[in-house]
Amino acid sequence: MDVRSQVSMVFHLDKCIGCHTCSIACKNVWTDRKGAEYMWWNNVETKPGTGYPTKWENQDIYKGGWEKNGNSVSLKGAGKLRGLKNIFHNPHLPVLDDYYEPWTYKYEDLFTAPEGDDQPTARPVSLVTGEHMDVQAGPNWDDDLGGSIDYARQDVNFKDLSPAEQEVMFQLERMTFFYLPRICNHCLNPACVASCPSGALYKRGEDGVVLINQQVCRAWRMCVTACPYKKSYYNWHTGKSEKCILCYPRLESGQAPACMHQCVGRIRYLGVMLYDADKIHEVASTEKESDLVDAQLGIYLDPFDPEVIKAAKKNGIADSTIVAAQKSPVYKFVKEWKIALPLHPEFRTIPNLFYVPALMPGMATVQDGVYEESNPQFLWGGIDNNRMPVKYLSSLFSAGNTGKVVEVLKRLMAVRWHRRQVTVGDVKQDVVDKAMQEVSLGKETADAIFRLTSLATFDERFVIPPAHREESIEMLESTADVKGSTGFGFREKPARGW
């Protein structure tokens, strides 16, 4: 058992209001400069929708992530042979139009325009070329179903839904959407790290944050192709690749990442998870895609287990990190309560960003011309009548395994029934008991889920382990002392399929 520590995240989608405050916070701190104008290390998409860059989930186009190859996995669109073939022309790279051409406005025209009968306007100007341009797209161009025919209806997650099931989602009285915030997942099996010919990408040993060494990067851009979430970008001004660094300078000083600190809906949680690195290859090589979620959840270890603690200390993990793992809100959501799932586990990167699926607001009914909203049994229908089809959610969060999504939604619904009974008292107790028993949920656990979801303090949402400078120094020094060491916390160079 090779115990490592990993900083992980949970985003609660029922709480996201789509305000994009997180995106602006990240943009102002990290990508508000030349060459990075089009980059949004944090972006918020409307689902259904094609996202940013457009159709990023369609790996038939971009060839990102890993694919099953016998008893192992191999990169879909990168690697030694594929990388050599595409070294001068990579057809799987997203182009600027797939993101959008960034622009500003020529505001001086408002002040320098000659006197006349017409109203002067500030024309859009490209931030890349400096020339006038016609705006064609943006990072959230399909926000709130704005342009559903061109965008929302092109969502690849509709693949398992019949045309009739899709059309129901666009009927005016049932029209529905939710927001999907995304950052780098800082995966346990990062395709970007494996794809880089220069070895510029690496995974920090002390906390698992994936970074790009700007001095080593040679702009092969294989990482852009390999990342199935398209969270590695090319800076056209510096000639280097860049990506989300999880605000590690803030983490090292005990602060939450900028996007999480500024989150208006308080949907974001951060904490440490302990995992068994010996199982990475086994999990990534899981035969059936529908089993990938269970396989991934099995790699994370119980931080209260004496054997795990002993192995963690033997591996150099600090006591303070183990304590942080025991208090981690991510561990509670993912392992204890089992209500958070990874995004597109079929990419086999083993992502460390988990999502609590959207249960969606209640939807009242009209009976005999009367709008009925007083009866909670009408207000909150069963899971089968959920406004967002389970098949759609399972395509996003469980590689098509509808059972995993249904289990999560039933747990969330049981908490909702329980809290309704506690606060309003208009739900029959037998209804609450049945819902709770069906998912083996106790009242104390339901109250704990409610508290961490709705009433949590800052310190409860973000449990950040103290930084240990000595660990970084030891890892850098180990490069010269240990033959074959990578110097980044790995005792040997990653094998094929890592």
Which secondary structure elements does this structure contain, and how are they paired or packed?
Layout lengths: L2 E10 L8 H10 L12 E5 L11 H4 L3 E4 L2 E4 L4 H6 L10 H4 L3 E3 L3 H4 L11 E3 L36 H6 L9 E5 L8 H5 L5 E3 L6 E3 L9 H5 L5 E4 L4 E4 L4 H5 L5 H4 L6 E9 L3 H5 L7 H6 L8 H9 L4 H8 L2 H8 L4 E2 L10 E4 L8 E3 L2 E3 L3 H4 L10 H8 L4 H22 L5 H10 L4 H13 L2 H4 L7 H13 L17
Parallel strand pairs: 1-14
Antiparallel strand pairs: 1-12, 2-7, 3-4, 5-6, 8-9, 10-11, 13-14, 15-16
Helix pairs in contact: 17-18, 18-19, 18-20
Task: Please give a structural write-up.
The protein is α+β, with helices and mostly antiparallel strands. It has a domain at 265-461: 2-Layer Sandwich (Alpha-Beta Plaits), CATH 3.30.70.20. 33% of the residues lie in helices and 14% in strands. It has 22 helices and 16 strands. The strands form seven sheets. It has a four-stranded mixed sheet with strand order 12-1-14-13. A two-stranded antiparallel sheet has the order 2-7. It has a two-stranded antiparallel ribbon with strand order 3-4. A hairpin with a 4-residue loop joins strand 10 and strand 11. The chain is globular and about 75 Å long. 43% of the residues are buried. Mean pLDDT is 88; it is low at 482-498.
